[in-house]
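For practice. Any example?
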Amino acid sequence: MTAATDAPLIDARRSGRWLYVASVILLCAWVLVPLYFLFINTLSSPETVNSFPKSLVPEFDFGSLRFFAGFQGMIDALYNSVLVAVLTMIMSILIGAPAGYALSRFDFRGKELFRMLILLTRAFPLPLLALPLAVLFIRVGLDDTAFGLALVHTTLAIPFAVLITFSLFSGIPIELEEAAWTLGCTRLGAFTKVVLPLILPGITASAIFAFVISWNEVFAAAVLTIENRTLPAFLLQSLAESPLHLKFAGGFILVVPALIFIFAVRKYLFAMWGIANR
């Protein structure tokens, strides 16, 4: 090839590289800019929050956060959110991981239909099911309880848990289990000794998604609980008629714990992507 024929190819690669960099910058800005403005308005005085133009530097006024720290019911709501999210993680993995393993390793009649039905569980809007769920929970005594709310959140998280674990189990060759069987391991022994260590990062990542789904869910928490509300439902009830600076502070308090949790376990997300891309 001559220099004349190489020039268009080089220009195309350079344009593609710049397009990729611009897309990454735009995506990061789409995520980080709202969080930054939330941070600025949370740490600003009420006068600054309501003024215009907006400042790009926080004043580090902690009055709004101190208000929430001493607000009655705040700590209980935070505890309820953590408890419900942890229960949702545990139940979604205990139910979703075996289902994902069965879909990956066994062929049975109606397998594809079963996978479709799992996805269809997300097709029913939660407001449509709110009244029947509330009546059912009152009859069985699960209304206004963390366990009852965790059951609802688990039904929301199970489709993701099943599909994520199904893809991860499918990425692990069955020959590894067969080799363990020939060495005297049972199916359960081969799973716990061979498959589970390889799939553990993916299981953890699936649990993270379940945690985030439970932490952010507000409709079921507002309908099914009264005294034991989670943090989103508590803030929704408390901040309905509150000033703007308190709404920013409430959003900040709601977002930060989830971000800290995801940041703390981010290595498992990276490990899951590594397994899935094998």
